[in-house]
Amino acid sequence: MPLNIAILGAEQPAGHSVTIVQRKDSTKPTPSGVKARKLDLSNFEELTTAFKGQDVVVSAVPFPTLATDKVIIDAAVAASVKRIVPSEFTTNLDTPLSRKLPHVRGKVEIREYLESSFSATSLTTWTSINNGAFFEMSLKYGVLGPNLQQRKATFHNGGSNVVGASLLSDIGKVLVKVLEPAHFQETANKAVYFYSAAVSERLLTDLAGQVTGIDFGSVNDGQIQDLNVDDMIREADKKLAEGDMSALATYYYPMMYSNGYGGMDFKELSWNERLGLKTMNEDDLK
Question: Is 60 exceeded by the pLDDT of residue 211?
Fold first, then answer.
């Protein structure tokens, strides 16, 4: 839900007319002043009718699968929608290792379907928006080092690896920029990567200590755990094999901190400069 709000918060001020499509049985309220339609999301005809006259279809569902999203994509094509934005919003799907991770298999299936369905001459195109870790949520739950609620910190693979983190508001800004005439064609049928800040767990823990006065301690004194991501994945594999779906969250860590998954290649992939997106400095982070 926070991601949906961030997208709406960027689209409306940019002058876009937004219609929210919800499941028929959804009880979630919609923001005032925004059109909403409740539909059978498996009904091709209903979706096609709803999409007619729309320029863009954006999906922000948390765990998409091709089984559920194929009909949405096909309906958007039938309605002559110009751009489809699938629900990726993830660290990196462009390495063989990352595509094998269980928590993104649905996203990979959808990306492969989009890649195989559209050519340079197709009326409908796609753009995936790939951000780093959701910055605000990561800080809240201690994913990027410091956990302010618990007043402790955790490192992964040493804590010094630099990765990209993204503000929710910047995800909305990037979506708006992708749809602008200046960038619409160059982003067609491409994955657009961006980040709001380049951070390490050690840097954020240090800055959080300066701002809050919390003494997080160190690895040497035993107050900060330094976890090995490979060990974490072995444990997650066991849990997943036993049907424990809570293990899925663990697979974000290799996407960020393990070699070969592309999480540390974010600057090379970044569209920040082309899209005119500001990155955060240490004062901004504080």
Answer: yes
